[in-house]
Amino acid sequence: MPILNLQNVDWQADVHWFDFEDLCLLLDVNSGAVHIIDAPARAVLEELSEGGQQGILDETGYLSAIPRSAAAWGAAIALEVYRELADKQAAGTLFTTDIAVLSYQPPQPILQALCLHVAHDCNMRCRYCFADGGPFGGERGLMSRDTGYRALDLLFRESGHRPRVEVDFFGGEPLLNFAVVQDLVTYGRARAAAAGKRISFTLTTNSLGLTPAIEEYLVANQISVILSLDGRPEVHDYNRRTITGQGTYAAIVPRQQHFVAAQEHRDYWVRGTYTRQNLDFTKDILHMAGLGFRYLSLEPVVAAPEQEYAIREEDLPRLALEYRHLARAYLEAADRGEAFSFFHFNIDAAAGPCLNKRLTGCGAGTSYLAVTPGGDLYPCHQLVGQRDYRLGNVREGIQQPALREEFRQAYVYNQPACRRCWARFYCSGGCHAANLAATGSLREPAPVACSLQKMRLEAALYVQVQAGRKICQAGRIPATQGRI
Predict the structure, then answer these.
(1) In angstroms, what CA-CA distances link 405 with 240, 250, 266, 281, 464?
(2) Which of 200, 198, 191 is nearest to 157 (CA)?
(3) 186 phi, psi to nearest 5 deg
(4) Most buried among 66, 99, 307, 422, by the most CB within 10 A?
(5) Which of 349, 353, 129, 127 is nearest to 238 (CA)?
(6) Which H or E run includes 50?
(7) Secondary structure class of 34 (helix, strand, coil)
(8) Tens digits of per-residue pLDDT, 259-311?
(9) What is the pLDDT of residue 484?
(10) Region of residue 233 (phi > 0: left; psi between -120 and 50: alpha; otherwise: beta)
């Protein structure tokens, strides 16, 4: 008979239970296991988390003392709950231990990905643009072939044992420098073949310059594409405008629809931004799904709190309701046979990214660097132009190793607010650039972004559980029995 042992359980860091719609879910943080729990199980957990040790199973499998929860639910039900908790613990799916916290050290910097800013210029002027309309606070310009070649040389030189490297063409608007993009794809593939590595390419575009010839090239060369669209016409046109201030929805949507049809919905995301002006963003996601797009992402705007469009702390209760609304709408669409993929609902709680990815996030400054048209190196695309974070240049390499080490050390266990947070393995301590903008520190998460991440993660866990229940009901796998 398993014995329930809670001696080393950290109730804040190791488990998390929450109500979402019709379910109460229990996440075992360290294993990633998710359990559906009922009211008696929740009552027992709350009682145990308050510090009382009454009711712990002894070696005979009986309660060593009568728990308070037995008064409400009866001793037999309380005993059943305790035994199921003990069974889950013995199976390694509940009250597991974070074995990495005492010994983890972040990996040494080995480059894997580059964000090539092939254009510090843009044919749009979005209201919330962190690139200041393209130039990132500097001069407008395009990356030369030589600079791009040197950046790729750096990538292969510094990628070490990694079998695969990645390149994202970014801006500004990268289609303004598409001839160089094509040259760099050819050069990068030749370098990869010579090095015995694989290379993948992504291009992020506002789609205003997405011509049939460019579309044909992207499809033929299997370039992953991120297409920018904010949702409903009035929402998109309010924020995403041409240089002369005109809305761009009507110009880009037909091009995007044609593109995703041409590549048969294989490798793209339609990515938008929501602001304080559209906290009802579920309508925007459903609008994009209604346009025929299957792979969608909608991100909260990154902005200084004083900006009128910035998400503020007082918006959080409204947004918590909106993520619940989105979860319902997402599942209802699937039930209607109109399923789409929402990026932030695609989680695997038990077998997601490797430990390093969970603890260090995107790898900004270590495995991932951004390159300006002039060849300067920055930890990530959102920090480009902030001279305090310039790491070096593609010609001279890394010139600020101490700064790079600061980014390497900004992992979850070195961030006091994150070390014991239940969401730590899913948000990885938050976005470095957002943390710096909000708190001025790599090791202190942005409070609003942190709250949004948690509510989004709870919605994702609920969606995954409901999807799993439907599979069980269809008879494809046996349903789990028991109270938790």
Answers:
(1) 37, 46, 38, 38, 37
(2) 191
(3) -60, -45
(4) 422
(5) 127
(6) none
(7) strand
(8) 999 988 888 999 999 999 999 999 999 999 999 999 999 999 988 888 999 99
(9) 62
(10) alpha
Of 139, 157, 160, nearest to 149 (Cα)?
157
**Residues 250, 254, 255, 256, CA torsion sign:** positive
Report which of 426, 174, 126, 122 is spatially closest to residue 303, judged by C-alpha positions. Answer: 126
Say what angle helices 212-220 and 249-262 make with each other, to 10 degrees.
Answer: 30
| Burial class of residue 33 (count of CB atoms within 10 Å of its CB; 0-12, 13-18, 19+) | middle
Exposure string over 448-470, b if 16+ CB within 10 A, otherwise e: bbbbbbbbbbbbbbbbbbbeeee
Q: Render 189-235 in DSSP notation, one character per residue.
A: HHHHHHHT-EEEEEEEE-STT--HHHHHHHHHTT-EEEEE--SSHHH
Structure confidence at residue 48 as a pLDDT band (50, 70, 90): confident
HSE on the CB side for 184, CA within 13 Å?
Answer: 33
Mean pLDDT for the chain? 91
Cβ atoms of 288 and 231 closer than 8 Å = yes
Q: How far is CA 272 from CA 120, 124, 293, in A?
A: 21, 15, 12
Amino acid at 109: P
Average pLDDT over residues 394-403: 96
- Angle made by CA atoms 188, 189, 192, in degrees to the nearest 5: 85
pLDDT digits (tens, 9 = 90+) for 246-268: 999 999 999 999 999 998 888 89
Structure tokens at 221: 């060369």
Q: Which tens digits make up the pLDDT trace of 110-141? A: 999 999 999 999 999 999 998 999 999 999 99
Q: How many residues does the chain have?
A: 484
Residues 6+ apart with CB under 8 A from 368: 111, 112, 113, 114, 115, 362, 379, 380
Q: pTM of the prediction? A: 0.92
- What is the greatest pairwise CA distance in the chain? 78
Cα Rg, the chain, nearest whole Å: 25
pLDDT score, position 476: 35
* Mean pLDDT value of segment 214-229: 97
Q: CA 242, CA 235: separation in Å to the nearest integer?
A: 15
pLDDT for the residue numbered 353: 66
Pairing relation of β-strands 392-393 and 376-378? antiparallel
pLDDT of residue 57: 56
Amino acid letter at 433? Answer: A
Q: Give CA–CA dist 292/287, Å, rounded.
A: 9
**What does the buried/exposed string (b/e) look like for 329-352 if buried means 16 or more CB atoms within 10 Å of the residue's CB?**
bbbebeeeeeebebebbebebeee
* 120 close to 234: Cβ distance less than 8 angstroms: no
Instruction: Give me the mean pLDDT over the 335-357 stretch.
Output: 82
Q: How many CB atoms lie within 10 A of CB 413?
A: 19
